[in-house]
Write a structure and sequence with these properties.
elongated; 6 helices
Length: 344
């Protein structure tokens, strides 16, 4: 090939590539231009006291947070206390978010960045609405996927779109609110080191009681956890089942929460009762509701433990907590999981 022919062919190839790029860009309406950064929600104030309610909705569920003075509550969980700092952080991030890069205007491409309407089938978007104390809506935005390091190391961006508008944006900041109740509340319901328990009694619904004790030594300390009162011909399975029961009872976290109308009673209720070495006494009740297990508790105390019992009661009275699906097998196991028949 002659040099002149090569130059002509190269020029044609370059022109063809440029035309393809321009055509694709025009059809897809994407832009990588960095703008000055106008506010995503200019009417939102960084002062969290200007916001009285937050509603976060996705395709399947909704979280509603409501401010009461300086405190925040989960409105659609009967006012269970929420972590105020997380609600405030979300409001401030929304107030600070800036429109940096315009993205697609085509509805059939919203799903690529997660900004389709939440009602759309398979939508991954989250719709955040803010309201003032009078109930007036002050902000409404769809947030989609997060781009970590979108604007440099440690500087995340989020795809977002205002409902009713075609233009989607890459905005500054991370605006991906959690959709699990446990992420908006203190998920630790109860915590007590197992070695602080001296006796535990488990009564699984329809079963015989199981008792675990730690014997008190002459020096006042307590020994290892052991099953007591086992029927003749029965022995613990290999492992540390007695201590495992105490550990399970000493660490309760919630997945969800709901109001408790009355203390659960009757068939189908499993109970765990234990006494602490410092005088704290706790009774837990577990019931199955569909595929889920829910726990409620009450506490009393003697001496120095009285204050701990009062604080625990004030925080948990009138509430029932949904357990992680893996928890019941550890907290209320069947006897068959704990014991076996002795040979001979």
């Amino acid at each position: 090939m002659k040099p002149k022919q090569f130059v002509v062919l190269a020029a044609i190839a370059a022109a063809t590539s440029l035309l393809a790029i321009l055509t694709w860009s025009a059809n897809n309406e994407w832009s990588e231009v960095t703008l000055g950064g106008s506010k995503l929600l200019p009417v939102v104030s960084g002062d969290p006291d200007k916001t009285a309610r937050i509603e976060i909705r996705n395709h399947d569920s909704v979280i509603e947070l409501e401010r009461a003075g300086k405190e925040w509550k989960v409105k659609n969980r009967d006012g269970y206390p929420a972590k105020a700092e997380d609600a405030i952080r979300l409001v401030r991030r929304l107030a600070a978010a800036e429109r940096v890069e315009p993205k697609t205007r085509k509805a059939d491409r919203y799903h690529l960045i997660g900004t389709q309407d939440v009602e759309a089938e398979g939508s991954a978007a989250k719709r955040i609405r803010l309201f003032d104390a009078a109930g007036k809506q002050i902000a409404d935005v769809l947030v989609g996927r997060t781009r970590i390091d979108a604007f440099g190391a440690g500087k995340a961006g989020t795809y977002a779109r205002i409902p009713g508008e075609d233009q989607a944006w890459l905005v500054s900041g991370e605006l991906d609110p959690a959709m699990r109740v446990k992420d908006w509340v203190e998920d630790e319901v109860f915590e007590l080191v197992a070695t602080k328990m001296k006796r535990l009694e488990l009564q699984v619904a329809g079963g015989e009681p199981v008792v675990v004790e730690r014997s008190k030594r002459d020096d006042g300390s307590y020994g290892d956890a052991k099953f007591v009162g086992l029927p003749e011909g029965t022995k613990p399975k290999a492992g540390d089942g007695a201590a495992d029961l105490m550990r399970a009872a000493g660490s309760i976290d919630l997945e969800d929460v709901r109001k408790l109308a009355a203390t659960p009673v009757g068939e189908g209720i499993s109970t765990i009762t234990f006494a602490g070495v410092d005088g704290l006494n706790v009774t837990m009740r577990v019931r199955k509701d569909g595929e889920d297990h829910w726990l409620s508790l009450e506490a009393s105390g003697e001496g120095e433990a009285a204050k701990s019992a009062q604080e625990l009661t004030a925080r948990t009275a009138g509430w029932e907590y949904k357990l992680n699906p893996s928890k019941p097998a550890k907290l209320v196991p069947d006897r068959a999981a704990l014991f076996e028949t002795t040979s001979g």
